[in-house]
Structure formats: structure tokens, C-alpha cells
């Protein structure tokens, strides 16, 4: 039977992995949309019809920047949790 700390750790790991998965999905979709916009941007008829490719490209770049920032924040959070777990194990081992 799992103790309470192990269950909490597994739940935290699950949520962090879920966030990472969603972040990767956002990044992948943004890059695919960016490629599509770049392809469409070269079509003069479409460009004159919509005229908003630069705004879309800027928005996609912002999304990718946010996704990269999320990765850094997730790494910091993961390292912090690993340090907490290591210090708890060290204290428990001393007792």
C-alpha cells in the first residue's frame, strides 16, 4: 500500500507531465500553423484577400515564446520538487 507522500508525488508528477504534454501540443500546432501561414503568404491572391498574415505570424510567435517560457518554468518546478523529495528522504533516513 502506498503511503500518502508517494501518492502526492505521483499526483504531482502526473499533473506536471500533463502540462508538459499540453505545452508540446501547443508548440506543435503553432509551428504547423506557422508553416501553413508562410506557405499561404506567398500566394498573392490570398494575401490581398486577407491581408492579415503578419498579424497571424506575430501571434504564433508569441504563442511559441510563451510555450518556451512554460518549458523553463516547468523545469524549475521539477527541479524544486526533486530537491524537496531528496531533502525529505535525507531527513527520513537520518531519523
From TrEMBL:
This is Uncharacterized protein. The lineage of its organism: Bacteria, Bacillati, Bacillota, Bacilli, Lactobacillales.
Amino acid at each position: 500500500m502506498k503511503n500518502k507522500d508517494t501518492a502526492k508525488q505521483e499526483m504531482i508528477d502526473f499533473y506536471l507531465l500533463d502540462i508538459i504534454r499540453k505545452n508540446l501540443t501547443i508548440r506543435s500546432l503553432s509551428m504547423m500553423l506557422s508553416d501553413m501561414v508562410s506557405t499561404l503568404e506567398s500566394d498573392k491572391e490570398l494575401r490581398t484577400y486577407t491581408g492579415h498574415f503578419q498579424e497571424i505570424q506575430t501571434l504564433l510567435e508569441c504563442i511559441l515564446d510563451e510555450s518556451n517560457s512554460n518549458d523553463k518554468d516547468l523545469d524549475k518546478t521539477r527541479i524544486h520538487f526533486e530537491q524537496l523529495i531528496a531533502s525529505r528522504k535525507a531527513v527520513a533516513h537520518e531519523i
